[in-house]
Each structure stands twice: as structure tokens, then as C-alpha cells.
């Protein structure tokens, strides 16, 4: 239909070939620029992902059994602000489920915490093998709001729920030979996948002197924040010794043995120079790699001074009278 | 030469700094987990070491493959490693220690784990300061080159610092150590080859 071509565009509107080629090159270079930047940035990001990734939108298990506990503060309770439930349940050292702080929260669901049997044996007049619920139901549950100080120089305030260990030990009647209490965690790599790697000697073992174990502060915890203990925090039964570093608080206990000899404990065996048997919180005895004089409360930015025996000196300092705590750390 | 791939260095710098920017943004929003300062320390330290190793890989990579582009991004990678080392040190000094000079001095002087890390950081400072063309000219290339071999020392100290940081499982730091050993081996091999060639030339 058209008998005429459209009018030629004026020369001023035609892109010179040189510029036209440059534009293509610019586009190409922009693509290469973006691609390279993405590869470099993405590569670094992936390297960093491997370790210590914070939880991505993780919602902690709210816990099945709510335990209504009288709000009245107990004799040992601290009134310092409590660490949020989410932090207590997502920031854990529990090498049976991995080495990163968030591994336990992500992976501890493989642990079957019921039915659960606890063996109590050794130097006791009434050795027994009992179901954990039966064991717990024999004692009134108490709430204890304790400071928790990790040997890595961070700390929390945790409202535990549990039974004083001393009351349980009284019931099984230690013999006159009993000097120590040894605790053992479950050994089952199917339920505790971290045990497939030999980072520590499995099963995890911890221990206390009998008088430490009998001390009214020492708690066998079964819950926190009025709820059942989540697996990553050591369900169904864990030890809480608030004046000692956190690693003494052995999780998911299957055996409590009273012994004549000091038990060979896991971290002490793994590295006795850094982790003593007593592990009393002591700002005057530094860890070889960092100072123990101060700590960071989870949620805080600044540090606070660490207190001798984690602030429980008034209650427990007598246990160590005459001992050199720089040597027996 | 550099004009042939004008996008290369800006891209490496932008991509390399992106994780640091992400970390800063997430940190400001409190999204780094229960112990954000520890997380930032671990990340910046890891990135510093990784990028430092990448910068040290440039020359061996060129020697092995004959490519020229690795040599062209070496300086950018080195400065990037220094940026991460600075971020790591500042996180420690400002956020972790609250600029408590006494506590930090005690750390640096009495705890080998920190002494070693701090030394690695200090060694990178003269390298960053002499990274410009002008400085290379001022020092003369042989002297400049000798000075910049300190990067290997800093990386070794970085690996030791990493090994000591880990409580039990040293797999990851040992992997970084192995990469560093490999890079050193390539360079030592090249030096031996050069020396032999030179000797052969002389006897001929």
C-alpha cells in the first residue's frame, strides 16, 4: 500500500557505529560486573553460612506441659531480668547435636525424651532404675531463677523448674563410702547425631563432690519458664549447679552413680588445662584464652563484672574452705 | 591492561564488601542471634582469613594456569582482607571489650590466642599503607615485594588464631591451614625452579 518509504531520519539521530558498539560493550561489562560481584559476595556468604548461623525465623517449641508455679520468689531467686525464652532455647552448647550454638534447637527433635529411664546406683543403699516421670512425681517441683554463667564468658538468667538433687539423694541413702556423684548422658548416635563424630568421648560424663550435690542450690531441672524442658536444654532431666560454669550442668541424664573416687569428667579429660573438675565460677582464675573477670549477659551489649561463685559465694564458699581454688579450678 | 576489564576490580570490591554491609545491617536490626557480637566476631574473622588466602592465591594461580586476571585483583583482595581484619578488630575492641584498654592490653600481652591474632592484624597495616603504585615506586619493587611477603606470616598467624579459637573440632581451621600450605608450596616450588634455571644459565 505504501508507495513511499518513511523519511530518512536526520543524521543527528543516528547513533554512530562506534558509540553503538560501546553501548554493547558497556552492557556486557555491566553484566560481567554484576556477575563477578555476585560470585565474590555469594562465595564469602556461603563460607560464613557453615558456622554459627543465627536462627532463621525459628520458633521454639512452646513445651507441652505448662506447670503453674507459685509466683512467690524462692530463697535463692535472683530478681535480675530473665533472659527471653527464645534465647535460652536457641543458644545452647549440646555437642551431642552439633558444635554450633543453634544446632541443638534445630536438631534435638530426634531425641525421644519419653519413655525415659534413670539408673541410680553405686554407693547407695537403695539402688534403683526408675521412669523419669515417676521419679519427678515423688517430689514437689520448685521454680528457681538462677544466673547461668558459661565458661565462654556469656551468661543468662533462667527460671528453672525442678527438684533439689539433695532430696533425691537422701531418698536413695548414700553409703558411708560415697564421696562423689557421677552423672552420665544417653549414648545413642541415632537419637544424638552429634555422637557420630568423635569430638568428645561419648557418653558425656560430669560429676560433683557429694557435699556439692547435696547443697540446696543444686537442682535437677525438668522445665524452664514453667514449661517442660525442651530437648535442646537437656530434657527430660538435667543438672543445674548455678555457682559453676555451665558445662557442669550435664543434660539428658540416664545415670546417677555415687562413687568413692572422683569421676573422670568429659571436659576435664578432653582439656584439663582449660576445664577443671570443680569449674567454680571465679573471676580471679582466667581461662587460658580469655579473661573470666567479666561476662556478657545475653541480650546486653556491654560486659558486667563476674562475681565469685557466680554471686552465690554466701551460700557455697564454705564448701571450699582451705582449698586453693587457683589450683583446684 | 587494566582498561581491558574495567569492571573487574570494582566488582570484586563490591561483592567482597557486601557480606560486611549485610552483617552491619543485620546487627543494627538485632538479627544476629542471641549473642550477636560473638557472631559478628566469628564472621569478620573468618572472612578476613578467607579473603587473605584468596589474595595469596593470585600469584600461585597465575603461575599454575598462566591467567593474568588473578594478578590484577590481588591488591583489591589484599585491601579487602585488611578491611575485614579492621572490622574484626573493631568488633572486638569496641563492641566486645567496650574499649576497655586495660582489659585489651592484658588480653594481647598474656593470652597467646589473642597475641597471635593481634599480631596478624598489625602485620597487615604496613601492607595496606604501601599498597599504592606510588609506594611501590618509592620503595622499589624488590624491597616492596620482600615487605609484602609478610602477608604469608599474617595468614599463618591467622590460621593459628583460628585453631585456638575452636574449642574442640579443628576441621575447619585445619582446612584453611592446608590451603595456605598448598599456596606456599607452589611458591617455594617456583622459587626453586627459578634458582635452578639461573644456575643452569650460569654453568652453560
TrEMBL record, chain A:
<feature type="binding site">
    <location>
        <position position="238"/>
    </location>
    <ligand>
        <name>Mo-molybdopterin</name>
    </ligand>
</feature>
<feature type="binding site">
    <location>
        <position position="150"/>
    </location>
    <ligand>
        <name>Mo-molybdopterin</name>
    </ligand>
</feature>
<keyword id="KW-0812">Transmembrane</keyword>
<keyword id="KW-0560">Oxidoreductase</keyword>
<feature type="binding site">
    <location>
        <position position="185"/>
    </location>
    <ligand>
        <name>Mo-molybdopterin</name>
    </ligand>
</feature>
<comment type="function">
    <text>Part of the MsrPQ system that repairs oxidized cell envelope proteins containing methionine sulfoxide residues (Met-O), using respiratory chain electrons. Thus protects these proteins from oxidative-stress damage caused by reactive species of oxygen and chlorine. MsrPQ is essential for the maintenance of envelope integrity under bleach stress, rescuing a wide series of structurally unrelated cell envelope proteins from methionine oxidation. The catalytic subunit MsrP is non-stereospecific, being able to reduce both (R-) and (S-) diastereoisomers of methionine sulfoxide.</text>
</comment>
<feature type="domain" description="Oxidoreductase molybdopterin-binding">
    <location>
        <begin position="112"/>
        <end position="267"/>
    </location>
</feature>
<feature type="binding site">
    <location>
        <begin position="95"/>
        <end position="96"/>
    </location>
    <ligand>
        <name>Mo-molybdopterin</name>
    </ligand>
</feature>
<keyword id="KW-0732">Signal</keyword>
<keyword id="KW-1133">Transmembrane helix</keyword>
<feature type="binding site">
    <location>
        <position position="233"/>
    </location>
    <ligand>
        <name>Mo-molybdopterin</name>
    </ligand>
</feature>
<dbReference type="InterPro" id="IPR022867">
    <property type="entry name" value="MsrP"/>
</dbReference>
<dbReference type="GO" id="GO:0016491">
    <property type="term" value="F:oxidoreductase activity"/>
</dbReference>
<feature type="binding site">
    <location>
        <begin position="249"/>
        <end position="251"/>
    </location>
    <ligand>
        <name>Mo-molybdopterin</name>
    </ligand>
</feature>
<dbReference type="InterPro" id="IPR036374">
    <property type="entry name" value="OxRdtase_Mopterin-bd_sf"/>
</dbReference>
<keyword id="KW-0472">Membrane</keyword>
<protein>
    <recommendedName>
        <fullName>Protein-methionine-sulfoxide reductase catalytic subunit MsrP</fullName>
        <ecNumber>1.8.5.-</ecNumber>
    </recommendedName>
</protein>
<dbReference type="Pfam" id="PF00174">
    <property type="entry name" value="Oxidored_molyb"/>
</dbReference>
<comment type="similarity">
    <text>Belongs to the MsrP family.</text>
</comment>
<comment type="subunit">
    <text>Heterodimer of a catalytic subunit (MsrP) and a heme-binding subunit (MsrQ).</text>
</comment>
<dbReference type="InterPro" id="IPR000572">
    <property type="entry name" value="OxRdtase_Mopterin-bd_dom"/>
</dbReference>
<feature type="binding site">
    <location>
        <position position="92"/>
    </location>
    <ligand>
        <name>Mo-molybdopterin</name>
    </ligand>
</feature>
Automatic annotation (TrEMBL), chain B:
<keyword id="KW-0249">Electron transport</keyword>
<keyword id="KW-0288">FMN</keyword>
<feature type="transmembrane region" description="Helical">
    <location>
        <begin position="77"/>
        <end position="95"/>
    </location>
</feature>
<keyword id="KW-0479">Metal-binding</keyword>
<dbReference type="InterPro" id="IPR022837">
    <property type="entry name" value="MsrQ-like"/>
</dbReference>
<keyword id="KW-1003">Cell membrane</keyword>
<keyword id="KW-0349">Heme</keyword>
<keyword id="KW-1133">Transmembrane helix</keyword>
<dbReference type="Pfam" id="PF01794">
    <property type="entry name" value="Ferric_reduct"/>
</dbReference>
<feature type="transmembrane region" description="Helical">
    <location>
        <begin position="110"/>
        <end position="129"/>
    </location>
</feature>
<keyword id="KW-0813">Transport</keyword>
<keyword id="KW-0285">Flavoprotein</keyword>
<protein>
    <recommendedName>
        <fullName>Protein-methionine-sulfoxide reductase heme-binding subunit MsrQ</fullName>
    </recommendedName>
</protein>
<keyword id="KW-0472">Membrane</keyword>
<comment type="similarity">
    <text>Belongs to the MsrQ family.</text>
</comment>
<feature type="transmembrane region" description="Helical">
    <location>
        <begin position="173"/>
        <end position="192"/>
    </location>
</feature>
<feature type="transmembrane region" description="Helical">
    <location>
        <begin position="150"/>
        <end position="167"/>
    </location>
</feature>
<comment type="function">
    <text>Part of the MsrPQ system that repairs oxidized cell envelope proteins containing methionine sulfoxide residues (Met-O), using respiratory chain electrons. Thus protects these proteins from oxidative-stress damage caused by reactive species of oxygen and chlorine. MsrPQ is essential for the maintenance of envelope integrity under bleach stress, rescuing a wide series of structurally unrelated cell envelope proteins from methionine oxidation. MsrQ provides electrons for reduction to the reductase catalytic subunit MsrP, using the quinone pool of the respiratory chain.</text>
</comment>
<keyword id="KW-0812">Transmembrane</keyword>
<feature type="domain" description="Ferric oxidoreductase">
    <location>
        <begin position="45"/>
        <end position="159"/>
    </location>
</feature>
<comment type="subunit">
    <text>Heterodimer of a catalytic subunit (MsrP) and a heme-binding subunit (MsrQ).</text>
</comment>
<keyword id="KW-0408">Iron</keyword>
Amino acid at each position: 500500500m505504501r508507495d513511499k518509504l518513511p523519511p530518512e531520519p536526520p543524521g543527528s539521530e543516528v547513533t554512530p557505529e562506534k558509540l553503538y558498539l560501546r553501548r554493547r560493550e558497556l552492557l556486557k561489562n555491566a553484566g560481567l560486573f554484576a556477575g563477578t560481584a555476585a560470585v565474590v559476595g555469594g562465595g564469602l556468604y556461603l563460607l560464613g553460612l557453615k558456622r554459627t548461623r543465627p536462627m532463621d525465623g525459628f520458633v521454639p517449641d512452646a513445651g507441652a506441659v505448662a506447670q503453674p508455679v507459685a509466683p512467690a520468689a524462692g530463697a535463692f531467686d535472683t530478681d535480675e531480668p530473665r533472659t527471653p525464652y527464645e534465647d535460652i532455647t536457641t543458644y545452647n552448647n549440646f555437642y551431642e547435636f552439633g558444635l554450633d550454638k543453634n544446632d541443638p534447637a534445630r536438631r534435638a527433635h530426634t531425641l525421644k525424651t519419653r519413655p525415659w529411664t534413670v539408673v541410680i546406683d553405686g554407693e547407695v543403699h537403695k539402688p534403683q532404675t526408675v521412669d523419669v516421670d515417676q521419679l519427678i512425681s515423688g517430689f514437689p517441683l520448685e521454680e528457681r531463677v538462677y544466673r547461668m554463667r558459661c565458661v565462654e564468658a556469656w551468661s543468662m538468667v533462667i527460671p528453672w523448674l525442678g527438684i533439689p538433687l539433695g532430696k533425691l539423694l537422701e531418698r536413695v541413702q548414700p553409703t558411708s563410702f560415697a564421696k562423689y556423684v557421677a552423672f552420665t548422658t544417653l549414648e545413642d548416635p541415632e537419637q544424638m547425631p552429634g555422637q557420630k563424630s568423635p569430638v568428645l568421648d561419648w557418653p558425656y560424663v560430669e560429676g560433683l563432690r557429694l557435699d556439692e550435690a547435696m547443697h540446696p542450690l543444686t537442682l535437677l531441672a525438668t522445665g524452664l519458664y514453667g514449661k517442660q524442658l525442651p530437648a535442646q536444654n537437656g530434657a527430660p532431666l538435667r543438672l543445674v549447679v548455678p555457682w559453676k560454669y555451665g558445662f557442669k550442668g550435664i543434660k539428658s541424664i540416664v545415670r546417677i552413680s555415687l562413687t568413692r573416687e572422683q569421676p573422670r569428667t568429659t571436659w576435664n579429660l578432653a582439656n584439663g588445662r582449660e576445664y577443671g573438675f570443680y569449674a567454680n565460677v571465679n573471676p580471679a582464675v582466667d581461662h587460658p584464652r580469655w579473661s573470666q573477670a567479666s561476662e556478657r549477659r545475653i541480650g546486653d551489649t556491654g560486659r558486667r563484672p563476674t562475681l565469685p561463685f557466680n554471686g552465690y559465694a554466701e551460700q557455697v564458699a564454705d564448701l571450699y574452705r582451705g582449698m586453693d581454688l587457683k589450683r583446684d579450678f | 591492561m587494566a582498561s581491558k576489564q574495567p569492571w573487574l576490580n570494582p566488582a570484586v570490591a563490591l561483592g567482597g564488601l557486601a557480606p560486611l554491609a549485610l552483617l552491619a545491617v543485620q546487627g543494627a536490626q538485632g538479627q544476629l542471634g542471641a549473642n550477636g557480637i560473638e557472631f559478628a566476631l566469628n564472621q569478620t574473622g573468618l572472612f578476613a582469613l578467607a579473603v587473605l588466602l584468596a589474595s595469596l592465591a593470585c600469584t600461585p594461580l597465575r603461575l599454575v594456569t598462566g591467567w593474568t586476571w588473578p594478578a590484577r585483583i590481588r591488591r583489591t583482595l589484599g585491601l579487602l582482607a585488611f578491611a575485614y581484619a579492621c572490622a574484626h578488630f573493631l568488633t572486638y575492641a569496641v563492641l566486645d571489650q567496650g574499649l576497655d584498654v586495660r582489659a585489651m592490653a592484658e588480653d594481647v600481652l598474656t593470652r597467646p590466642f589473642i597475641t597471635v591474632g593481634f599480631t596478624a592484624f598489625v602485620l597487615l597495616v604496613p601492607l595496606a599503607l604501601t599498597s599504592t603504585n606510588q609506594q611501590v615506586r618509592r620503595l622499589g619493587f624488590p624491597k616492596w615485594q620482600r615487605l609484602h611477603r609478610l602477608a604469608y606470616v599474617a595468614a599463618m598467624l591467622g590460621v593459628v588464631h583460628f585453631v585456638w579459637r575452636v574449642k574442640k573440632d579443628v576441621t575447619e581451621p585445619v582446612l584453611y591451614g592446608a590451603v595456605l600450605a598448598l599456596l606456599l608450596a607452589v611458591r617455594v616450588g617456583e622459587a626453586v625452579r627459578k634458582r635452578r634455571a639461573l644456575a643452569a644459565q650460569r654453568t652453560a
